[in-house]
Write a structure and sequence with these properties.
Number of helices: 5
Structural class: alpha+beta
Strand content: 25-35%
Distance between the termini: 107 Å
Low-confidence stretches: 137-144, 568-592
Oligomer: single chain
Largest sheet: 4 strands, antiparallel
CATH superfamily of the largest domain: YVTN repeat-like/Quinoprotein amine dehydrogenase
Helix content: 10-25%
CATH class of the largest domain: Mainly Beta
Number of strands: 28
């Protein structure tokens, strides 16, 4: 039997061809026996050893056909009728239904299933499977199942020799595996030779080198992904120019705004607007202007607003914008944090430019570096500036409803958690990341992590995730994975809503009392009466008494409601206890 093997590869895949020919055998080496070696011979038992000098190799090739998978669906409007029955014909369906109901198998099946269903109904009536056995065991001190912790999972460094600040971070809206980082030097009049203007898009799975380089004409201060089209990025530069990039078209910007009609100073905030085309955006700069753009024509803005809180529309009196916040669920409203410590609430759809500045909030002594609305309670927003973070409500303009203590170093950025309504993050100048949970502790952060030795400048949390990115002054991006803050606790939304409402009511009482005092003082001055200096301690006791009277009235009202509806449950015990404890600890501090 002949065994043959046929090679089907191309000739180019092999080396030079082998030419075999027949020739007679030759003796190459002849070793003669040496009798003297016989004396060194040692007899041993026979041992069989198998030696294979060649490697065993196998080769196998299979040509398979591709399988095409198609997803198909079916829309059942009404049951599975036979082909000869039209479901739209009432006469045919009625006749077929009567025919089936007379069938013996149908009667037997219905009788058997009826007895089984009756058994389950009786069982359900005997045992309530939806009963809550631990409904009254809610405890304010109930923390998460896992202890608060954070670990570093990745570090990305600026590849340039001259380090720059990571001024803005933006996560990819779909994959969350890509991070766009804007790099710029914000030190005043710092001119370093050969400083790069490039910003980068990083792939977290391969962070040794950037996935894409963005080459702007001026260093980027802000950079944002388009939530509708992830190929588009909006950037605001240090020189005031606006531009956008399409990752499918390369590293250069597709279009750039003009210097004459654009911003004159660094653009610290830019957002995409919710529009049908997905091409509209707006920006804010320290030159005191908010400009609206359409990237299809960036040569000139479509609309402008001067941030003059005197509502005179003068650029000389405009406040410089250093942060910007826009919530898509509130398409006509946005917040601007200024260099002077004032937060401006604007309404784009107002009739006149003066009415577009709806209200102002004054609570910081330095620049407001970050403004962020609560994703669960949009009327509540966070501001980060000077050495503290404050929580505000749109209903109260005089003061914040909650706030952190004053730190020994500056706070540079902050953002809310996208999973829990009372958790937020702050980045500090000493390189520390603080994680606050105001539902359980309002005096100290729940977790403080020393991220790096240089100052932290920016941070951004992934949507519905536990991964947060922190950017430093030297351009280092540190990715942290937190634990203990990513699980929504039972009834946490209700408790957070009650806490915010309680603090809003408290501030309204204090604001009303302050107005009454001012009105009384003005009346006395008009009638030239003798001014009697009011004791601050008496004012504090009076306000405190009024507040607790309101709390007591609320308790009586709920007790009456519970007496009228004995089956109902009032679930606000936690909120009332927290209110009583919170007022005892916070009112003296506010009065001071």
């Amino acid at each position: 039997m002949d065994i043959t093997y046929t090679y089907t590869r191309k000739r180019s895949e092999f080396g030079r061809p082998c030419n075999f020919s027949d020739r007679p055998g030759t003796v190459d080496v002849d070793i003669q026996p040496d009798p003297s070696l016989a004396r060194a011979f040692v007899p041993r038992n026979p041992v069989d050893v198998g030696v294979q000098h060649s490697c065993e190799m196998s080769e196998h090739e299979v040509n398979t056909e591709p399988v095409e998978v198609v997803s198909r669906g079916m829309n059942h409007v009404e049951g599975g009728w036979p082909k000869d029955i039209d479901p739209q014909s009432v006469e045919k369906t009625t006749r077929y239904r009567k025919k089936v109901q007379k069938d013996e198998n149908y009667i037997t099946t219905v009788t058997r299933l009826g007895a089984l269903m009756e058994h389950y109904i009786k069982q359900n009536n005997a045992i309530d499977i939806y009963e809550e056995y631990f409904a009254d065991d809610d405890d304010v001190t109930e923390l998460q199942g896992e202890p608060p912790a954070a670990k570093t999972i990745n570090i990305i460094r600026d590849p340039n020799a001259t380090k720059r600040t990571a001024t803005c971070l933006s996560w990819h809206p779909n994959t969350h595996q890509k991070l766009a980082v804007a790099y710029s030097s914000l030190e005043f009049q710092r001119k370093v030779k050969d400083m790069s203007f490039d910003s980068y898009i990083w792939d977290l799975e391969n962070s040794k080198e950037p996935e894409m380089v963005l080459k702007p004409p001026s260093p980027l201060v802000t950079l944002k992904y388009n939530p509708k089209d992830s190929h588009l990025l909006l950037g605001g530069s240090y020189s005031g120019l606006m531009g956008y990039w399409d990752t499918r078209k390369g590293s250069l910007p597709v279009e750039i705004s003009t210097i004459e009609l654009g911003h004159r100073e660094p653009v610290y905030g830019a957002f995409w607007l919710e529009s049908k085309t997905g091409t509209e955006c707006f920006s804010a700069s320290t030159d005191g202007q908010v400009l609206w753009w359409d990237i299809r024509k960036l040569s000139e803005p479509t609309e402008s607003l001067i941030l003059d809180i005197t509502r005179e529309g003068l650029k000389d009196k405009a406040l410089g914008a250093i942060s910007l916040e826009f919530e898509p669920t509130m398409p006509n409203e946005f917040l601007v944090g200024t260099e002077q410590g004032t937060i401006i609430s604007c309404n784009r759809k107002a009739k006149t430019p003066a009415d577009k500045i709806s209200s102002t909030f004054s609570g910081h002594y330095g620049p407001v570096y970050a403004v962020a609305r609560n994703p669960f309670h949009p009327r509540i927003f966070l501001s980060v500036g000077d050495r503290s973070a404050q929580i505000w409500s749109d209903e109260i303009h005089e003061s914040s409803i909650l706030g952190t203590k004053y730190h020994h170093t500056y706070l540079m950025d902050g953002c809310w958690s996208t999973v829990r309504p009372t958790v937020f993050f702050t980045a500090k100048w000493d390189g520390t990341l603080d994680i606050w949970d105001f539902l359980y502790n309002q005096k100290d952060p729940s977790l403080s992590v020393k991220v790096c030795d240089e100052p932290l400048f920016s941070l951004r949390l992934q949507d519905n995730s536990s991964i947060i990115a922190c950017g430093s002054k030297l351009g280092t991006i540190t990715l942290l994975q937190t634990s203990g803050f990513s699980t929504l606790q039972r009834s946490e939304k209700e408790q957070s809503s009650e806490m915010f409402e309680r603090e809003v009511r408290r501030e309204k009482v204090l604001a009303l009392r302050l107005r009454e005092m001012l009105l009384k003082e003005s009346t006395k001055s008009e009638h030239q009466e003798v001014k009697v200096e009011e004791n601050p301690q008496e004012v504090f006791e009076s306000v405190r008494k009024e507040f607790f009277e309101i709390i007591e009235q609320e308790k009586q009202r709920r007790a009456q409601a519970e007496a009228q509806h004995p089956c109902g449950q009032v679930k606000d015990h936690v909120g009332e206890e927290a209110a009583a404890k919170g007022e005892e600890s916070q009112l003296p501090k506010d009065q001071e």
